[in-house]
Specification:
By secondary structure, the protein is an alpha+beta fold. It has helices spanning about 5-10, 15-25, 30-40, 40-55, 75-85; strands at about 30, 60-65, 65-70. It has five helices and three strands.
Amino acid sequence: MTKSTLIKTFGDYPQVRILDFLISSEFDYPITEIAKEAKVNFQTLKKLWPNLEKNKLVISTRTLGGASLYKINLGNPVVEKMLEI
């Protein structure tokens, strides 16, 4: 499996994998799907998620069937710099 530039640069850590997945996708997802696609344990994602929201790296886009869907916050300056990588 080829690692993305983001993972090569910042390391293969759960938070980096989450951000890498979200950056590479144009869709919004529930956190359960984000955990699965980013190959991060759901409990680990739940621990990291509040910090991602607090720093506005991810945003809630809508609610579908009672589940909130999220995507990367393209308006965040930190995310903009990550996209340059």
